[in-house]
Amino acid sequence: MPEGIKTEIKRKALHLTGLTVPAFYVLFGRELTLTFVAFAFVLFVVLEPFRIIEELRDRIKVRLKIISPEMVNGVEVIEKHIKDIERSHERNGIGAHVYFSLASLVIVYFFSGKIAIAAITVATIGDALAAIVGKSFGRHRFSNGKSLEGSLAYFISGVIVIAPLMGLVAAVVGSLAGTIVEFYELPPDDNFSNQLAIAVTLYLLTFL
Description:
Blueprint: H1 3-15, H2 20-28, H3 30-52, H4 54-67, H5 69-85, H6 96-110, H7 113-137, H8 148-166, H9 168-184, H10 190-205
């Protein structure tokens, strides 16, 4: 398996942990999910400077070395795995996990349960499948590097997720919205804009 695909699979395996949000919603309801996502968001924001700024990590490792050299080894292993899956723009900027948790927090707070579950699930699974299918089987490439095969994987997975929750029409339109946003990687980050695009689209469809 090519190294690029291995790295993408590792990145998307971590990305799929985002499915804990809709799972939490189904199991425990809106209020506990809000608490869970808010806690995750705050934790990510607090830890983000340590991911970006190497000097901060070095200071921690110096202190940990006094307590336990094994802990330092553990930190360095985590550092290596993070560097392996980081996008180039994330090395000195905000990571995808921060954008993802912020979008999830907004969606769980402002939208109904069905919309929140659908939007977060589709954005998580669709993004992972689009990347893995695109890198593994993509033969028809666009100028931005995306592939027709990857976009189709996103769209089909979205229809499968949304249809049982909100019907086929909403599934097709909502999935199309997510596919377009994923394709163009709309700012500030597609991990944020993707979820919001699907949620807003599904919300507007409830008036039709």
